[in-house]
Amino acid sequence: MRNAKIISTGMYVPENIIPNSYFDEILGENVSEWLEANVHIRNRRWCSDNQSTANLCGEAAKINLKRAGLRPEDIDLLIVCTDTPEYISPSTASKVQHRMGMTNAGTFDLNSACAGFVIGLDTAVKYIKADENYTNVMVIGAYAMSKYLNELDKKTCNLFADGAGAVILSLTDDENEGYLASELRTKGEYCDWMGIYAGGTHQPVTKEVVENNDHLLKFVKRFPSELNPDVWSDMARTLASRSATKIEEVDQFIFTQININSIWATLEKLDISRDKAHTVMHEYGYTGSACIPMALDEAVQLGKVKKGDLIYFIGSGGGLAFASAAFRF
Hints:
Helices cover 32% and strands 25% of the residues. By secondary structure, the protein is an alpha/beta fold. The protein has 2 domains: 3-175, Peroxisomal Thiolase, Chain A, domain 1 (3-Layer(aba) Sandwich); 179-328, Peroxisomal Thiolase, Chain A, domain 1 (3-Layer(aba) Sandwich). The strands form 4 sheets. The chain has a 5-stranded mixed sheet, sandwiched between helices. The longest helix has 17 residues, at 227-243.
C-alpha cells in the first residue's frame, strides 16, 4: 500500500519584530496587558516593505529541503496554502517553484484560509497514495496578513502576523508510519463574519474601497467562543475512530493558534494535559495558514515531536473551514 509520511519540516519568520507596546502607542491605550493575559501574544513578526508571501515561502522551503536532504528538482508537486497570495493571479506556487528551481514540480495554490495547511496535507497525501508519479510533495502554509491590516482597528491589528511553515511528504510503504486519517468540514453560514472582502469579483478594488479600508481584513461579527472547542474536540474524536487510535495516545495536538483559550478548552473537553499542545503565538502572533506547520517545526526542533509519535493536526479558518489529520511521525 502506498502511503505518505512527513520527512522534514521548516519555518521562516521575518526579522521585523513588533512588540505589544507598538500598539499601546498607536492606539493610545494599554492593550499589552490584555494581549498577554487573554491570548498570550507578546510579539509578532511583520514583513518588511520589500517582503511578500513568495519570499516567506522560499525561505521556509530552503530550510525544508536542506533538512530532507533533497534537491529542488526532487519535488514532484508544490502546494502553497495561503489566503494572502502573491497575486490574485497567477498562483503564488508558480512563482515559488521558479524562484526555488523546482523544475520538475507541478504547482497550485490552496485557499481555505487558516485551515488551508491541514487541507494541503490531506491533498498531498491523496496525490502520493493515488498516483505513482508523485513521490515527494512540498506543502507550504504562508501568511503575510500584515499587508491587509488597518493599524487603527484594534480588533485585528494586534493579533495577526506573518510567517511560513513547510513540510515535505514522501512515499512510504511502512504501515507503522505516515498518514492515518483525516476529515474536512465547513460551516459556510459563517462565510461573511471575517475576511478580506474586496479585491475579488464580488467587490473589485476602487478608490472608494481603498478610502473606506474595505480591502483590508475585517471582523464583521464575533464568533461564539465555544465554536472552535466544540468542533475541534469532536474532530479529534472522529480522528481517533477513523485512525484506530486513542486520544490519550496522542503525543502532540497541533491546533490553529489564534486563541490559546480555545486550545485549552479543547484539551479540557478531551481530558488531555496542556503540555500535549505546543503553541507558538507567544512570540510570533497569529500566523493563519502558517501557524500549524510553524508549531510543528518548533516542536520538532525542541524534541517535543519525535519519530514514531502520534500527531493530530486540527485547523480552522474563515469560511468557516475545518480540517484534521492524524499522522504517525
